[in-house]
Amino acid sequence: MRFEIDIPAGIFDDQFRADDFTARVTEFAVLELIRARRLHEHEAARILGLERWELVALMERAGIVPTEKQFDRIRGELGRLVAARAARPSRPEK
Fold first, then answer.
1. What is the rounded distance in angstroms from the CA atom of residue 60 to the CA atom of residue 43?
2. Interval 8-34: pLDDT, tens
3. Are 44 and 53 within 8 A, CB to CB?
4. SS3 of 10, please?
5. For 67-78, what is each residue's pLDDT tens digit?
6. Which pLDDT score is estimated for 94?
7. What residues have CB less than 8 Å from 40, skipping those under 6 apart?
8. DSSP annotation of 9
9. Is 22 left (phi over 0), alpha (psi -120 to 50) or beta?
10. Neighbours of 62 (CB within 10 A)
11. What is the torsional sign of CA 66, 69, 73, 79?
12. Measured between alpha carbons, how far is 28 from 9 in angstroms, rounded to an integer?
């Protein structure tokens, strides 16, 4: 999909280049698609031409938790629950 925005030509110059602006808008759109769970992270990395670690850093700066960190958090919570259950004294059966 392609988007077109009608922006006055005088907006851009050597300090504010159209190519840089286009790249930033694309980055923002891709991050919002990740946040909305409409785009997978591997697809986002491909679209933006980034390595995985670069995408992770970009996502974290945007306040988006990368998938592997979500799984790590869930795994940690599950481990704590299992440990807490194992530490409880067992109830005698009736």
1. 17
2. 989 999 999 999 999 999 999 999 999
3. no
4. helix
5. 877 777 778 788
6. 66
7. 34
8. G
9. alpha
10. 13
11. positive
12. 22
Task: Calculate helix-pair angle for 41-48, 52-61, nearest 10 degrees.
Answer: 100
Please give the Cα distance from 48 to 42 (Å, whole number): 10
Q: What is the pLDDT of residues 59-69, one digit of tens each?
A: 999 999 998 77
pTM exceeding the 0.85 threshold for the entire prediction: no
Closest CA to 52 of 37, 63, 41: 41
Distance CA 66, CA 52 (A): 10
* DSSP-H helix ranges across 4-51: 18-35, 41-48
H-type helices in the chain, by residue range?
18-35, 41-48, 52-61, 67-87
Contact 66, 59 (CB under 8 A): yes
Establish how many alpha carbons lie within 13 A of residue 62's alpha carbon, considering only the half-sphere containing its beta carbon: 19
Neighbours of 69 (CB within 10 A): 13
Average pLDDT over residues 28-42: 96
